[in-house]
Known about the structure:
Keywords: Hydrolase, Protease. With 535 residues, the protein is α+β, with helices and mostly antiparallel strands. It has twelve helices and 29 strands. The strands form nine sheets. Strands 12, 13, 14, 15, 17, 19, 20 and 25 form an eight-stranded mixed sheet that branches.
Amino acid sequence: MVKLQGSVPATSADxxxxxxxxxxxxxxxxxxxxxxxxxxxxxxxxxxxxxRYLTRAEFAAQxxxxxxxxxxxxxxxxxxxLVVVERRPAARSIVLSGTAGQVTAAFGTAIERVEHAAGxxxxxxxxxxxxxxxxxxxxxxxxxxxxxxxxxHFKFSKESAQAAMLASMSPGAEPSDAQAASGFTGIDMAxxxxxxxxxxxxxxxxxxxxxxxxxxxxxLKAYFxxxxxxxxxxxxxxxxxxxxxxxxxxSADAEVMLDIEVAGAVAxxxxxxxxxxxxxxxxxxxxxAAAVHDDVRKPSVxxxxxxxPESEWTDQGLAAMDQAFEAxxxxxxxxxxxxxxxxxxxxxxxxxxxxxxxxADFPASxxxxxxxxxxRLTVSxxxxxxxxxxxxxxxxxxxxxxxxxxxxxxxxxADARVPASINPGxxxxxxxxxxxxxxxxxxxYRVRVDFLTTTIGGTSAVSPLYAGLVALLNQKLPxxxxxxxxxxxxxxxxxxxxxxxxxxDNGGYAAGAGWDACTxxxxxxxxxxxxxxxx
Length: 535
């Protein structure tokens, strides 16, 4: 057996071992295989009208998994007593099922049960191994462990947190809207950031990735009625058994509703597809692949408001997701990711024991996604009078941002003056974020969650805000915007499409003129961005 590169288990803190996992426990694993052929280099400075995107059918035929590779994995599964559940050629994966005993024997690993703050999970304690004939074919094996991997990047305002606590203490009650009703809506932010007028997202589909929680149609109808808009068309898509599961206490419902309500307010005629998956590395990998390669709903932009420090992922997980984002770029799909809510260190003490180091949040640190940082603004009437880096508290309520330890400095970011990491060694890698928007819970977003109108901030709100903007741009442009990053750092730099944020810090990096590791290039000037892309 050959050790699978990148499969060494990630560091897991604050977990208590409960002993080996039962041999008869049923497990579904996702086996990720190599591309049929490598992707051609992307044209870095071509604007959308000059780009050549692949269709999903073309991508599957040219760069999906080959039948031979999937057959080889299926033959291995049969010998090991595992059942093939599903083949996903475009996503380059095959799902196998068996008992824990069969799976650990087949992949030469070991599993224990662990207890943590969120409950009890399986945790892999050894690398994955594959037979020699699969060496070089298999690039990842996910699902042997199911420890929660990501956190939603939202923050309640102080007043809303108190209301949420009251709601959680009375799960059968329906709190009144009067409890919390401050904050901006997506409509307000679209006006403040000068999003192009006369567009509503018609003909576009916005994909949203969720790893828990759910939405209530009654809440959506009531919320959008309060905005004078019809509720958007929302579809729940199940991945790996994940479902739309709203519940009290609030759990992740606040994340789901924030994402839908911000994106839907900006682009009310866009379809919204919400991909629900379990909160695990397998669930996250599969949900992203499902959205990227969905040839039914065909999303043109994806919003992701969940993430975790890069150090908490396996290398195979980082690679599989990064390659899915690269596929999105080839398909003309923009991916927007929240940059984190715990400052430059990205480790909120409430979620574990900080290691004292700075961390970039993944997936925002992937070079193929639009990393979305946060600001705090002051408004007079309908005008922004000041806007600074969001930093209400550098460890618990501040924008993520910094320097990747996992991804090299991209060529298109070479002239952005990405600083050396504040960690020992001063590594220079991919700088995060690329852009920013209003995120402080003190100046947050008014949303409706579980019968209650409340105020929420966090970079979680910035990702769907940009996703809504991209839907508007895609409606107007001859081709989808696609991968924005090379354009922001190249032809769009200095065009006035972004308004620079030069004041503040995130507890590790400071804002300044031009790009910085707190707010990227700054906040959007939507109509100017559209004009620059059309030019």
